Amino acid sequence: MTSIAESIRIYKEIFEQSALFTSNDDRLLVIDNWLDVPNDWTCSGIEGYHRWRMLIRAELIAAEELLQTNDANEPLISSNLIAHWTCWMAIINPAVSKHPITAVNKYLMLPKRQGHKGKPKSVKVDVVADAGREWIRLSNIKLSSILAELTEIDSLITSSEDEADPVDQPMPVPFLLKLGHELSEASCRHIIHDQRPAIHLYLTRLTPQEIADSDSRVASQLETLSLYGIQVHFGIPTYDLKLSPKPPRQPLKPSSNINLDVSTIIAFISLTTHIHDPAEASLKPNNANEHVRAISNQLRQESSVCALFDLVRQTCDTDTLQFWTTQENKERTYSIMEKIGGASEKRRLDCIFDGGDFWQGSRYSDSPVPGFPVKIISDAGEDVATASFDDFVLRRAQKALSSDGNMGSAGKVTSHTLRTVIAGLERGWTTLTSNRQSIKALVQGWHTHLHNNSSIATFWLVEPRSLSEQMLERSDRQRKLEQPQDSNADSKQQTVNSK
């Protein structure tokens, strides 16, 4: 048993070092080019980690208070030091818990039994590792406790046999078998990447030799655990945490093939994207603040602050650039532009898909951006090989699509947005969109990328356009009504006159 002074030293060491430990890359794979919006696309951290550290802090405070009235060399009785120390060793040792770690001291629900009243039972997993693919359970049970349990079961069996009218009741299940059964049951409810999580049980105070020299029923229990799919380990390897500066990360880049949603297709053909001098445009929106903000942001973005096609040219590898979208998005864009599009925008809409002089009358006509015409993604998935992205977001999008867009606590996402995102994720393509809220809902809880050394972004966010386009179009139509029409009306549409 560890002394009070030594326990305090160990608790302090764990508490101080745990403040510096990190398992996850601290950013999500999202390029964010919104104006005036914080770029807070960071991982949500390790669930339960802060709460676990606060438990250690409470133990440390209690031990320090005990030291004030007791000798430092006295043993610390009723301490959770062993449990916390073994958990810390499991957390920091990548040979035990593969990074990224997503949860500590997590309780996972068991299937609710038929006829059982109340909340379903749960089983504890000390560390959820490898982005949910591995569960680490630590048990500090001693061999003496296992043998005592067997003795008690033997006593119950003997007592039952001696009774003239034995009571028909089930015999108690040994702790290790009960634990193994519960972990196995829980894993069936938490399928990830088409597989149950791998379960590792660390018997931190047992050795193989002790088991071999003991009651054969102990070894039999461990064999049964393997039938449950549980890998049993003895002891817990010690590990010295080495905190070194992280190497500089590569900036995120879009994939060569970029998946477009409706908002970006409309932005690509919008008058404000191609107008020669957007800074001189004078619009007459209504007094709604969101309309004024949307228009001013778009004009500011197009006035060389963050112009859309300039942004594409600066960010992408233009030698291999190709834009794609779904047939559904093409049809939706035509439907929208039929209602709000001007003549030049409708002409560009045809050109963006079918070819033709897309850049006619554009301020980019002398330096067109590659990647056009936009190609249509095949429903058969023939466009690209296997996706390279971690499929956490893909599976979340697929699940939401099957639930009418319901994302639980994250709200709802429209079905056509989900289908667009899924088309990009299935192929490992960056999806270019202005739909910030939907993307935030989809990546909630996302911890990592399968290939962490990759710098390819999953999503690329740009400033929303649709509202300002509509307002610009209304302003332009009003101008046409107020001025005499002439044969050069379409070219005049490209300049919004100051009133």
From TrEMBL:
Biased composition annotated in UniProt, kind: Polar residues: 484-499
Protein name: DUF1308 domain-containing protein
Organism (species): Wallemia hederae
Biased composition range(s): Basic and acidic residues: 471-483
Location of region: Disordered: 471-499
Domain of life of the organism encoding this protein: Eukaryota
